[in-house]
Write a structure and sequence with these properties.
The complex is a heterotrimer of chains A (165), B (100) and C (350).
Chain A (H helix, E strand, L loop, with lengths): L1 H21 L3 H21 L3 H26 L12 H26 L14 H8 L4 H21 L5
Helix pairs in contact in A: 1-2, 2-3
Chain B lengths: L3 H21 L3 H25 L4 H31 L13
Helix pairs in contact in B: 1-2, 2-3
Chain C lengths: L1 H4 L2 H34 L15 H11 L10 H17 L10 E3 L2 E3 L9 H11 L1 H10 L3 H32 L4 H6 L17 H14 L11 H4 L9 H26 L13 H27 L7 H28 L6
Antiparallel strand pairs in C: 1-2
Helix pairs in contact in C: 2-3, 2-11, 2-12, 3-11, 4-5, 4-6, 4-11, 6-7, 7-9, 7-13, 9-11, 9-13, 11-12
Classes of the chains: A mainly alpha (165), B mainly alpha (100), C mainly alpha (350).
Chain lengths: 165, 100, 350
């Protein structure tokens, strides 16, 4: 049952990934990326990371992708008359190198895992409680640092997009 | 439940797709989206390892990566908007003033 | 055979069917309520020809929607144009999957929780489903290839994303007070008298409740936050180019969103299915009363939605965004801080 879910999710994720990188229209790419993010959230559910699955949907698919869609629609980038054309070298060598990379790394990962399996998870693994206890105990300083980073990013984004400084 | 290597192979494939996207696409926002694809592949790998070794640290890292991706998308899109105002196109090949 | 019909999976299926039919029936009832109530507020009679007191009006409306011609602009993006109403409707229904609409009842010897899925992070699921509702509107606005639709769609999605912050923060106040994200546990903690509810002395979340309500109006694109579909400014905003069943699906999505927002408000702040007055009943009598109490509370909020719509004027778009970011968001943060102090000082009994 979970294996079937895994294969369906894997198929959806790879298919939407292909649409993201190959479709002419940037808006369809963005919608395919949103679909990909939701299937990754499905993977997180399978792997007992419920809180992160919800965070992925709320933050990544629900806010970041909407922001990207906004900018695409406001800038009207989607003119399909102007088809992006990379050079011939890029178009042939790029996919070949990426495929070779995937093949080599995938092969090595497959062999190195050997007969690894998932152990039984501890009770409450991946719940809000477990993450919260860890986050505010060992990762307290990174937590404060990342809130500072968010403030800097907000100020930077507002300033960069202003028409007149 | 399938073994961990299946998840890792899916993560590798998605990462390779993201790399191809960055190499092939020329619009700035499309490249940003391919980078988000790569970040998600890394997130999947982190969560797989967190589950395999029963440590919640991997999930904390994913938490931080998602936050960072949000900040990076905001700033990246602001830069794209500023560039668009200058060049009226998001084609990254037009941003070549510093080329000698 | 009977043990298949009585298995937990089968019970989930029954609950699913009941909830979907009640929601769809509620949508048609809401159209009638909206038109009659708006008539009363505007000092005129609403529809009263079709059936007694106009009660068969929703059937006439439904028939009209089905029989109208389905027009699609020639330049529209066909796939996204057709999918957008579904993208709007599905998350609206999904968010209702975690709402407990009744107490645990005993059917055929087993205890059945009257909630479709009792997730550990149930409230987060409801928030996630409402975040995904933005896509239908954005896609509808873009796929119509029309200026009014695009502007309406972008305004609607900006509004929904902005008010999600205040919504989530007001829910965080309840999380602090309850210590759990499970809707069934949140409701169970509000048993007893009505001042034990989270909005009153049970959790001191009155400010959070008001913020949730206002943000709920903005999330469902209802007046006074109705700028995306403002008839006088934007023709009809993001659903300008839609007709017949696709428009009916947007219509349904709006009403189902209203019902979900009301159900969440009742669950989080007003004690869910608890009556608020301890009765000396037991067994099925008590359970029926509690289910009816839930329905009555949600109905009260729906009537409030309609009442506010026909009473208040519409916010201008910059006023709307300013309200969401500069007033509601800081207020929600203040509410969170006050709740944290109250929990730390052990004022709240949990």
């Amino acid at each position: 049952m979970q294996a079937a879910a895994f294969f369906i999710l894997a198929f959806m994720a790879v298919l939407s990934g292909l649409v993201v990188i190959s479709h002419r229209s940037a808006v369809i790419s963005a919608l395919a990326l949103a679909f990909n993010l939701i299937s990754i959230a499905g993977f997180f559910f399978l792997l007992d990371a419920q809180f992160l699955a919800f965070v992925q949907v709320i933050v990544y698919a629900g806010a970041i992708m909407v922001l990207i869609l906004f900018v695409l629609m406001l800038l009207n980038v989607d003119e399909e008359r102007r088809i992006e054309r990379s050079g011939p070298v890029q178009k042939t060598l790029g996919p070949i190198m990426a495929a070779a990379f995937a093949a080599i790394v995938g092969w090595n990962v497959w062999n190195a895992s050997g007969d690894a399996t998932f152990p039984e998870a501890t009770a409450g693994f991946g719940t809000v409680r477990a993450l919260g206890l860890e986050l505010f105990d060992r990762f307290y300083y990174p937590f404060e640092a990342i809130s500072l980073l968010l403030v800097v990013a907000m100020v930077g984004a507002v300033l960069l997009a202003k028409r007149r400084l | 439940m399938v073994d961990p290597q299946y998840f890792l192979v899916v993560s590798t494939v998605l990462f390779a797709l993201g790399v191809t996207g960055v190499l092939l696409r020329r619009g700035a926002i499309s490249m940003l989206m391919s980078i988000e694809l790569m970040l998600n592949a890394a997130n999947l790998a982190f969560i797989t390892f967190a589950r395999q070794f029963d440590q919640v640290e991997g999930q904390i890292y994913v938490f931080f990566i998602i936050t960072l991706a949000a900040a990076e998308a905001a700033v990246g899109l602001a830069i794209v908007i500023a560039l668009f105002r200058l060049r009226s196109s998001t084609d990254v090949d037009t941003v070549n003033l510093l080329k000698w | 055979m009977t043990d298949v019909l009585l298995s937990p999976v089968a019970f989930t299926l029954y609950k699913l069917l009941v909830v979907i039919s009640v929601l769809m029936g509620g949508v048609s009832l809401m159209t009638w309520i909206e038109r009659r109530l708006s008539g009363m507020i505007q000092y005129r009679v609403g529809p009263n020809r079709v059936g007694p007191m106009g009660l068969l009006q929703p059937f006439a409306d439904g028939l009209k929607f089905v029989m109208k011609e389905d027009v699609m602009p020639a330049d529209a993006h066909r796939l996204i144009f057709t999918l957008a109403p579904a993208m709007s409707l599905i998350p609206a229904f999904c968010a209702f999957a975690v709402v407990p609409f009744g107490p645990p009842v005993e059917i055929a010897g087993r205890l059945v929780d009257l909630v479709i899925v009792d997730l550990d992070g149930g409230i987060l699921f409801a928030l996630a489903a409402s975040s995904l509702g933005v896509y239908g509107i954005v896609c509808a606005g873009w796929a119509s290839r029309s200026k009014y639709s695009l502007i309406g769609g972008l305004r609607a999605s900006a509004q929904m994303v902005s008010y999600e912050l205040a919504l989530a923060l007001s829910v965080m106040g309840v999380l602090l007070v309850s210590g759990t994200l499970r809707p069934t546990e949140i409701v169970a903690q509000q048993a007893g008298w009505f001042w034990n509810w989270n909005a009153f002395a049970g959790g001191w979340q009155l400010l959070g409740f008001l913020i949730f309500l206002i943000a709920g109006y903005a999330e469902t694109n209802r007046l006074p936050f109705d700028m995306p579909e403002a008839e006088s400014e934007l023709v009809a905003g993001y659903h300008t180019e839609y007709s017949s069943m696709k428009f009916a699906m947007f219509f349904m999505a709006e009403y189902v969103n209203m019902m979900t927002a009301s159900a969440l408000a009742v669950t989080l702040f007003l004690g869910g299915y608890h009556l608020g007055i301890p009765l000396a009943l037991d067994g099925w009598a008590l359970w029926i009363v509690q289910i009816l109490a839930f329905v009555a509370k949600v109905g009260l909020f729906l009537v409030l939605f309609v009442w506010v719509r026909w009473t208040l004027p519409r916010f201008r778009y910059d006023q709307l965004m300013s309200l969401g970011w500069k007033q509601l968001f800081p207020l929600a943060l203040v509410n969170l801080m006050i709740s944290a102090v109250l929990v730390a000082l052990d004022v709240i009994r949990r």
